[in-house]
Amino acid sequence: MNDNIKKYKCRFCNSDAKYIETIKNKERGDMLINCGICGRYKYNHSMDLNKYTDEIAFYLYHNGVHCQENDIHNKATLNDKYAEYIWIDNKPHYYKDGIHFRDVSLNEIIAFNNINLEEMVLLILQNISSKSKYRGDTVSYNYEELASLYFAKRTISDENSGEIINKQIEYIAKYLISMGYVEFSKTSDPLSQYRQVILTFNGWKLVEKNNYDSSKSKDVFIAMSYDESLADTERTIRDVLIKLHYNPIVMKDVQHNHQIVPEMLYQIRKAKFVIADFTLQNNGAYYEAGYALGQNKEVIHLCREDELSNENSKLHFDIAQVNTIIWKDYKDLKEKLTNRIEATIT
Ligand SMILES: [Zn+2]
């Protein structure tokens, strides 16, 4: 590994990042980046990420691998027990060149950004609470960090971009004040007026209401298509879970429409782990699996074998990402799923 640390501007949050080269192959341009805002990440240079720089910045800030400035080689402790870096790609490389990665596909990043305002507010408050050393502590953010924290898009316009980012921050900050969730330290500088924040009693209450110790939960969220032809698949998954003393959670009545509804997110957060079956290529299952991954949940991916024989299937693209259980029939599904749960869920 080449440890030359060079200056680099983070293409997602636009702040000064550090990067270290790890692979000498210059044509591939492989490098690990350590950004003070986005954390430690790597991306596939052949992917067109320009359209999604805001979404990626938000994902990395809220779900990324963060560490202290001079701590490049140490394992991060925040959010993820194993990953040293996030790798944005549609292919798997959990472990490479002696480094642990958390793989995330563009689909998962887009799914994370499909959250509604209420969920956004909760993530902001959770972030402030995680940085508070004690209740009533004043937490400081720098300006570039504020944009990621408040989901303020940086790419809307080149002119007065600072002003436009500030407007977005202000919009959410004023809501937080009006709900009594936060207090900001008074300052005369409009750019820095939201940099010092205290989570109020109401703010803590909302965060605590949403903090579950899901490790002890018996609920398992099942994400799949609810097409009638899959009724027996669903029944098989339920039977496996019940036999292993878990409580299957299925939300049939929820329509997706590219927006994840809060009730579903609530059920996923509460669940111990998630089972996602991609047979019939249900978009909802993608969103739910993506959200669950962002919440550091174990996600078991399933797919019926015949789905893979479709050459145009986008599953080829995504399913390679994780160790998917490919099943032939219900007996096969039952056996493989039981074995996987027993081997991976503790
Ligand atoms: Zn960054």
Features:
five-stranded parallel sheet, Rossmann fold, 346 residues, 35% helix, seven-stranded mixed sheet, binds zinc ion
Description:
By secondary structure, the protein is of the alpha/beta class. The chain has three domains: 5-112, no CATH class; 117-209, Orthogonal Bundle (Arc Repressor Mutant, subunit A); 214-344, Rossmann fold (3-Layer(aba) Sandwich). It has eleven helices and 15 strands. A seven-stranded mixed sheet has the order 1-2-3-4-5-7-6. Helix 10 links the parallel strand 14 (298-304) and strand 15. Helix 2 crosses helix 9. The two termini are 35 Å apart. Bound molecules: zinc ion. Zinc ion binds next to loops. Zinc ion (ZN) binds at residues 10, 12-13, 15, 17, 35, 37-38.
Task: Spell out the blueprint of helices and strands.
Elements: E1 5-9, E2 16-21, E3 31-35, E4 39-43, H1 53-63, E5 85-88, E6 95-96, E7 99-104, H2 106-112, H3 117-131, E8 138-140, H4 143-149, H5 161-178, E9 182-184, E10 196-199, H6 201-209, E11 219-223, H7 231-243, E12 247-249, H8 262-270, E13 273-277, H9 283-294, E14 298-304, H10 315-319, E15 325-327, H11 330-344
Helix pairs in contact: 2-9, 3-6, 7-11
The structure holds zinc ion (ZN).
The site of zinc ion has 8 residues, from loops.
